[in-house]
Specification:
mainly alpha; cell membrane; Transport permease protein; ABC2_TM_bact-type; transmembrane helix
Amino acid sequence: MTAAAAPHATGSSGGSAVLKAELRLFRREPGAVFWIMVFPTILLSILGSIPSFREPTDSLGGNRMVDAYVPVTVLLGLIMAGLQAMPPLITGYRERGILRRMSATPVRPSAVLGAQMSIYGTSALVSALLSLTVGRLVFDVTLPSQIFGYVLALVLAILCGLALGALISALARTTKAASAIGSAVFFPMMFSAGVWLPVQAMPDTLAHIVEFTPLGAASQALSEAAAGDWPGWTHLGVLALWAVLLSAGAARWFRWE
């Protein structure tokens, strides 16, 4: 499907046509739309329906487990986008020679990469908005009190997720390899984001280690902003550093053919 649509994009006069073509392809992939934009909210709804998750917990400072899981589901969409959806698609374009053929047209191959990052980044933002909305309307989760800090932490987290996806796309030579690498990284990222156990509920030593991972730092920064505090500069710094390092690695090793 993607291979058939790419020639249409290469015949366009600019990157905006590539973005429109890639957006049409994305809308035709119900699996990607579901896992990125819908599944995190469904997971929050399932967890929130557990009575004990709606009771205050001492280990969370009197907060409820469902309150702690909202930042987790906010991050889940970008994990799906950056690790499961984007790398196989971009690697597939390279593997089939689509990017090489585009290099001979007025539209550069970088337009495809930029379009993919825009689409998946926006999808992650929509997923986050859905989780926050359902958390507020259904489970009475307080909306982030420090909105600017929350948005900053979320944007940095999305940049980290997309940069990691771009790095996987750079290192993987085949679509199967991209899927395998993405899956291998997927579960540690899920753990560090707090999918199985929120970072705030982890033992202190483990929590301190996780806080130096991209999504562990993101989870903590989002939780702090949700509580009304400005995210810790350490957590924001860890996110910014990971975004720079992952982007640099992707730029260094990425090949168009």
